[in-house]
Design goal:
With about 240 residues, this protein is α+β, with helices and mostly antiparallel strands. Helix content is about 45%, strand content about 15%. The strands form two sheets. Strands 1-4-5-7-6 form a five-stranded antiparallel beta sheet, covered by helices on one side. It has a two-stranded antiparallel sheet with strand order 2-3. A hairpin with a 5-residue loop joins strand 4 and strand 5. The chain starts with a strand and ends in a 26-residue tail after the last strand.
Length: about 240
């Protein structure tokens, strides 16, 4: 049973109509502009521009500010919002890889410590958000954290009591392809942040899969804490043998 899909795909210029794309590009180049100015630059009607601006505003890609200049109706200057930056190509991973390459040449051990520091920081922040929650709640929060980090994550509960967390986007793919530490530290992060669970990677984008996914199951010997459906308190757990 699918429990939660946590976010929609990022917008892209290719997903916009030709005219809407031209409006976005005009605002990108100008910084801000009135509908009449955009219409004049593109050779289309102001009403047509306003229709595109209205749709872009509804998608959260465009905002406006009011210009008060003398008597009469106020005028509006439109500009792209921060989420609209996702429409344009970025080469952050290339710059990051270049820095990491220089770092590795200077001190390979420092590169390892750099990934370790990132992992530890994420572990500490995640543990704070998971504290005091049931196993099932922790799975949901962990998937939410991964989604917030740009992994387009969702999670699925399965009849055997396990979960599957799926990452439909790799937020660090450009780095992960070059540095295996990025992937190994990701798995270590999940395991250390969620010690109640046994976590295994069962699909790996870098290895050729179309996504990364992790099987999450309660650790043996650590009972899940939950309220039964009838609302009665859960009884004490059964004894666990030494070989558990």
């Amino acid at each position: 049973m699918l429990v939660s899909r946590l976010s929609a795909a990022e917008p892209s210029l290719a997903g916009l109509s030709v005219s809407a794309r031209e409006v976005v590009l005009a605002l990108k180049k100008r910084g801000e502009a009135r509908a009449s100015e955009i219409a004049e630059a593109l050779g289309i009607t102001p009403s047509g521009v306003r229709q595109h601006l209205s749709a872009l505003r509804a998608d959260g890609l465009v905002a406006y500010r009011t210009i008060h200049a003398g008597p009469g109706r106020p005028k509006f200057a439109y500009f792209l919002t921060e989420p609209a930056e996702a429409l344009f190509p970025k080469t952050y991973h290339e710059l990051t890889n270049e820095f990491l390459e220089h770092l590795e040449e200077e001190d390979p051990e420092l590169l390892v410590r750099l990934f370790e520091r990132r992992r530890q920081r994420r572990v500490e922040a995640t543990r704070k958000r998971l504290a005091g929650k049931t196993f099932d709640e922790k799975v949901a929060v962990l998937a939410r954290i991964l989604d917030e980090d740009g992994y387009l994550a969702d999670f699925e509960s399965r009849p055997d009591g396990t979960y599957l967390i799926r990452e439909h986007n790799c937020a660090i793919l450009g780095v992960a392809v070059r540095y295996g530490l990025a992937c190994s530290s990701e798995l270590e992060f999940l395991r250390e942040a969620f010690p109640d669970a046994e976590i295994d990677r069962v699909a790996h984008k870098v290895a050729g899969a179309y996504l990364c996914s992790y099987e999450v199951r309660p650790r043996r010997g650590r009972p899940r804490k939950f309220q039964p459906q009838d609302g009665r308190p859960e009884g004490p757990p059964a004894p666990v043998g030494d070989d558990a």
